[in-house]
Every structure is written in structure tokens, then in C-alpha cells.
């Protein structure tokens, strides 16, 4: 328990990871630019900093939970060169959703700095993060996993070690995001289609969640639609990004991801209409849903 952990990015997922590590007895420094996030984590007994570079020389393992590859690049290789300040042999755990090729490049550069890298994207949402019950899709060396020393047990209910090659964790997350994006768009289309035919949306939800057409995303996202509450838990623009990663990765291996491409266009349409910062279930807003009167 003597290791010093850091979590960069105290958003919904990062805060849950930081809390779970802290609850498990680890020494944890939470890092974020937002004062309110730092204050919230400090109130729980955690250490805080606004820049990873300010504390990197004290950190044995850092979990980087940021939005995209540009932010990951900035955290590790930005102006303060935080990666060069970490102790030799320390571990960088990337929980950021990136293309497999980006994870491979990051691993090479981190290794060249004398550090270990674990490609470990996550799934489960803010609730699972807060409960320490995430699903982690990871790849990295056996030695790197050993150095994390119980950290993954603290944050996850399921840890899948997919090999030692960087990028395998991210490849699995890309597969997951293909399904997640398609299922959300399909759920929205189904509810809007039912409404167009004059069905009550609550009845659609009740029947489908007890029928073969149900999916986890249908069951989880449609209540947001029924409540007309699009407070972002995962925003439309997240799937503009993530399905874009799916299509980039598909293009790299010459794979025709046609269903993902169609879902991507729906999320782009929703974002273009001004719904990008709303919950991803707001993709329903691109479909006509008022009952159709043939007369």
C-alpha cells in the first residue's frame, strides 16, 4: 500500500476511479484544472494538484482518464514534460479511449522514457466507476501489471488482460464503442418509430425490455427519453468522437463497418443541430416521432 497513485482527469469516470483507489487505502493525488473537482476530492481526504507535472516525480503509477488522444498527449508530453519527471520504472495507465495505433505510439514513447505503459480503456459509466466496478480492457507487460499492485482490483469488477502488446486494449474498446453507438442510435430510432405509428413511448419501453429486441443500451438510455431529461451522462459528441475512432480503425484494417458509419451520421446530425452536449440519447431528436396521420 506504499505506492503513490495519481489520477489525471476528475470527471465522472476519473473521480470514481480516484475515489475507489482512495477507499481501498492507496495514497492518491487527484489532478484536474477545475477547482470544484479538486475541492471535492480534497474533501474526501485525497491530495490534489492542477498539473501532473507538479507532482510527477512522486508518482509510481498514474491513471490518465481524459477525453481524447490530444489531451493524453498534453498530459504526458506537453509543455511541462511530465513523462520525463516520473521515477524510472513507474507505470502509465491510459484509461482514455483512443485508436489502437495511438496506444501503440504512446507505449513506444513512454517505454523510451524508461517507464511502463498499460493500455487500459474502461467501460461501465459514472455509476460503476463510483462503485469501483468498471470493466477494464487492458494490455501490457506482466511486469507492468505487477507494479500496479492491486490498483485494478480497486477500480474494477472485471479486468480483461488481452495480451502484452499495446493497442489490444484499445482495439477491444473500439469494438465495444461500435456496439454501444449502434445500440443507442437503434434504441432512439425504435422509440421514434413506435411514436410515429401512434404507440405510447412508455408502452414501447415496457414491452421491448421484456422482449427479444431489448439491449442494455435500450434499457439504460430510453428512460432518459421518457423523462425528457437529456442531462449529459455521456454526450452526443462523445459518440461523434468514438464512432469516428471506430471508422478510422476499420479503415486501417480495410473493414466495412457500415452499421457504425450509419450510426455515426446520426450522431453527427444531432450534434450539427445543436444537441452535441446533451446526453447521447438525444440522438432521438433527429428522428420524426409525432404520430403520422395519413389523412
Low-confidence spans: pLDDT under 50, at least 5 residues?
none
Structural class call reads alpha/beta
Number of helices: 12
Percentage beta strand: 5-15%
Overall number of structural domains: 2
CATH superfamily of the largest domain: NAD(P)-binding Rossmann-like Domain
| Strand order in the sheet with the most strands | 3-2-1-4-5-6
Mean of residue pLDDT values: 95
Shape annotation:
elongated
Order of helices and strands: EHEHEEHEHEEHEHHEHHHHH
Sheet with most strands: 6 strands, parallel
CATH class of the largest domain: Alpha Beta
What's the assembly state of these chains?
A: single chain
Helix content estimate: 40-55%
User: Alpha-carbon distance between the termini?
Assistant: 72 Å
CATH architecture of the largest domain: 3-Layer(aba) Sandwich
CATH topology (level 3) name of the largest domain: Rossmann fold
Radius of gyration from CA coordinates: 20 Å
Work out the number of β strands.
9
Offer a concise description of the structure:
The chain is an alpha/beta fold. The protein folds into two domains: 4-164, NAD(P)-binding Rossmann-like Domain (Rossmann fold, 3-Layer(aba) Sandwich); 171-286, N-(1-d-carboxylethyl)-l-norvaline Dehydrogenase, domain 2 (Orthogonal Bundle), CATH 1.10.1040. It has helices at residues 12-23, 35-43, 69-77, 100-112, 125-131, 142-148, 151-155, 168-196, 201-208, 216-226, 236-252, 258-275; strands spanning 4-8, 27-31, 47-49, 61-64, 91-94, 116-119, 122-123, 134-138, 156-161.
Amino acid at each position: 500500500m506504499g505506492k503513490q497513485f495519481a489520477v489525471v482527469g476528475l470527471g465522472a469516470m476519473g473521480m470514481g476511479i480516484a475515489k475507489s483507489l482512495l477507499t481501498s487505502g492507496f495514497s492518491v493525488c487527484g489532478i484536474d484544472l477545475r477547482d470544484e473537482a479538486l475541492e471535492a476530492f480534497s474533501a474526501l481526504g485525497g491530495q490534489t494538484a492542477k498539473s501532473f507535472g507538479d507532482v510527477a516525480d512522486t508518482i509510481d503509477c498514474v491513471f490518465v482518464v481524459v477525453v481524447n488522444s490530444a489531451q493524453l498527449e498534453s498530459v504526458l508530453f506537453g509543455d511541462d514534460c511530465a513523462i520525463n519527471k516520473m521515477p524510472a520504472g513507474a507505470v502509465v495507465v491510459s484509461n482514455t479511449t483512443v485508436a489502437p495505433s495511438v496506444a501503440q505510439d504512446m507505449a513506444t514513447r513512454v517505454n523510451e522514457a524508461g517507464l511502463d505503459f498499460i493500455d487500459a480503456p474502461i467501460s461501465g459509466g459514472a455509476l460503476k466507476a463510483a462503485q469501483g466496478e468498471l470493466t477494464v480492457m487492458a494490455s501490457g507487460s506482466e511486469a507492468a501489471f505487477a507494479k500496479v499492485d492491486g490498483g485494478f482490483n480497486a477500480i474494477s469488477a472485471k479486468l480483461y488482460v488481452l495480451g502484452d502488446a499495446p493497442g489490444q486494449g484499445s482495439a477491444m474498446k473500439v469494438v465495444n464503442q461500435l456496439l454501444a453507438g449502434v445500440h443507442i442510435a437503434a434504441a432512439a430510432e425504435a422509440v421514434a418509430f413506435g411514436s410515429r405509428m401512434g404507440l405510447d413511448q412508455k408502452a414501447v419501453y415496457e414491452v421491448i425490455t421484456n422482449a427479444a429486441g431489448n439491449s442494455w443500451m435500450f434499457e439504460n438510455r430510453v428512460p432518459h427519453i421518457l423523462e425528457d431529461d437529456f442531462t449529459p451522462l455521456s454526450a452526443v459528441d462523445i459518440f461523434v468522437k468514438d464512432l469516428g475512432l471506430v471508422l478510422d480503425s476499420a479503415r486501417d484494417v480495410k473493414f466495412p463497418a457500415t452499421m457504425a458509419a450509419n450510426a455515426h451520421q446520426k450522431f453527427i446530425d444531432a450534434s450539427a443541430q445543436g444537441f452535441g452536449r446533451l446526453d447521447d440519447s438525444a440522438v432521438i431528436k433527429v428522428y420524426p416521432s409525432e404520430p403520422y396521420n395519413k389523412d
